[in-house]
Amino acid sequence: MKFGGSSLANAAKIRNAARVVERFSPENRIVVVASAMDDTTDRLVELGELARRGESARASKILSRIQKLHTKTAQATSSRKESKELLDRIDRLNKELEKTVQGISHLRELTPRSRDYLLSFGERLSTPILAAAIRSLGLKTQALTGAEAGISSDERFGEANPLAEVSYHEMRRRLDPILARNEIPVVTGFIAATVEGSITTLGRGGSDYTASLLGAALNTNEIWIWTDVDGLMTADPKIVKDARVLAKVSFGEALELSYFGAKMMHPRAMQPAAQRKIPVRIRNSSKPSLEGTLVSSAETPNGGRVVKAVSIIRSVGIVTVSGTGMIGSPGAAAKVFTALGSSNVNVMMISQGSSEATISCVVARKDVDNAVRALQLALLGQGLVDNVVAERDACIIAVVGSGMKGTPGVAARIFGAVARKKINVRIVAQGSSEYNVSFVVSEREGPEAVRVIHDEFQLGRKP
C-alpha cells in the first residue's frame, strides 16, 4: 500500500490512512509506503533554493513551518505511550534538517547530492508518524527508510536508477523476517541510497516507484496506490459531467493515460510491476470501500468500445521550424532535437510534413521561449532553416484504448466528431502501439473537444 501526499496531508488524514491499513490487515500481509505530507517536497525545494541564494529570513519561515507541521502532527496522531519516543525522533530529524539548511546557506551551494539529502526529509519525517498512527490502533509496525528496506541505486542524484536485482534480493532478505513476525514495514517512498550509503531520490513519481519495486521484490498479489481520486476516469470530471471510473485498464493503456495527464502512477514507476505482471490498483483513501481501477497485464474488454478514455494536457505551445534547405537533407530532424535536448526542452509531440520542409514540436508553454532561442542559435544562418515560429495557445487531446489497435475507422470518428463542432485540429500523431491518437487544438477549444469525443464513443455509459 502506498499513500500519496494528499492522503497524508494532515493529522486527520494520517489517522484515516492508519484505519485503512487496519481495515485490510486481518486478511493480508501488508507493506506500507509513505510519501511526504501534502506539499512538503515542494516546500523543501523552495527552502533549498532560498538557502543557496542566502535569503535567510524567508528560508527560516519555511523551515519553521515544516518543523511545526510535523511536530504538531506527531503529537496529534500517536498514542500517549509512544508520544515521547516519536517526538524525540521528529525533533532529531528537525534539527538535522536545520543543520542541512544552514550548511547550504553557508556554502551558497546546492549540489544534486545535497539537494537529494534535503528532499529526503519529507518522507523521513512522515514515515515514523504514519507508523506510530498505525501502532496506536494496536498493530505492530517498523518504520524504515528506503535504504534500510534494501533499495540501492546508482549515483544519478535527482533521478536515481535502482539497482533492481541487488535491491530485490536485499528487500526480500530484510522485509521477509519482519512480515513473518506479523509486523507491518512502513517504508519511506522516493528515497534510496548508493552502495556507499549516500541518500538518493528516485525522481518524479518516486514514491510510486518505491511501491512498485517492493511489490516486484516481494511478488505481491497487488500494489495499491491510495490517493484522492476514485480511480482512473474516462475523462476529467471537471470537464465531462458523466465521466466514470474505469474498472480495469491494461498497463499499455495506463502508460498512455499517465503520460497524457491522468492522475495515476508515473510511467517510470509502473515498470517493475509491469515486468513482473503484478496488478496495480488505484484507490481513494477517503473511500476505501470502492474498488478503484485495476491496472494489469491483461487486455481488458470495454463492452465492445474501442476507446476507453480521453485526456487533455493544457499549457503547451507549438514551435515550428521551416526551410527549403531541410528538404531531402539527412539529419535535419536530428539537429532540431539535439538543439532542444541540449537546452533541456522536452518534446511532447512531433509532426513533420511529407515535403520535409517543416517540423513542428509541441513543448510545455514555459519552455517555448527557450526552445525558440535554442533553435535560432543552432540552425539559422546555415542554409537549412529559414524561420522558427512559436504558437502559445495550444493543448493536447489524447484518445486512448487498446481496442483501437487494428480497428478501422477510429480516426475518422474522432476527427469527424471534432469537425462537427468546428474545432480546428493543428497537429496529429498516433503512437506505434495504436493505443493512442493525439492531436493539438487551441486551449479554448480543448474542453469541448474532450466532451464531443467522450459523447461520440459513449464513454459515460457503463459497458
Describe the secondary-structure layout.
Blueprint (H helix, E strand, L loop, with lengths): L1 E2 L7 H14 L7 E3 L5 H14 L2 H22 L2 H28 L4 H8 L1 H15 L5 E4 L19 H17 L3 E5 L2 E3 L5 E3 L4 H13 L4 E5 L20 E3 H9 L7 H10 L3 E5 L8 E4 L12 E14 L9 H11 L4 E6 L5 E7 L3 H12 L7 E14 L9 H11 L6 E4 L5 E6 L4 H11 L7
Parallel strand pairs: 1-2, 1-7, 2-4, 3-4, 7-9, 8-10
Antiparallel strand pairs: 5-6, 9-10, 11-13, 11-14, 12-13, 14-16, 15-16
List keywords for this structure.
463 residues, Carbamate kinase, six-stranded antiparallel β-sheet
Summed up, what is this model?
The protein has 463 residues and is of the alpha/beta class. 42% of the residues lie in helices and 19% in strands. A hairpin with a 5-residue loop joins strand 12 and strand 13.
The computed structural class is: alpha/beta
CATH secondary-structure class of the domain at 2-228 = Alpha Beta
Radius of gyration, in angstroms, nearest whole number: 24 Å
The biggest beta sheet reads: 8 strands, mixed
Assign an overall shape.
Answer: globular
Helices, by number, come to 14
* CATH fold title of the domain at 2-228: Carbamate kinase
Note down, in words, how this protein is organized.
The chain is α/β, with parallel strands linked by helices and 463 residues long. The protein has helices at 11-24, 40-53, 56-77, 80-107, 112-119, 121-135, 164-180, 206-218, 251-259, 267-276, 332-342, 368-379, 410-420, 446-456; strands at residues 2-3, 32-34, 141-144, 184-188, 191-193, 199-201, 223-227, 248-250, 280-284, 293-296, 309-322, 347-352, 358-364, 387-400, 427-430, 436-441. It has a domain at 2-228: 3-Layer(aba) Sandwich (Carbamate kinase), CATH 3.40.1160. Helices cover 42% and strands 19% of the residues. α1 (11-24) crosses α3. The relative contact order is 0.09.
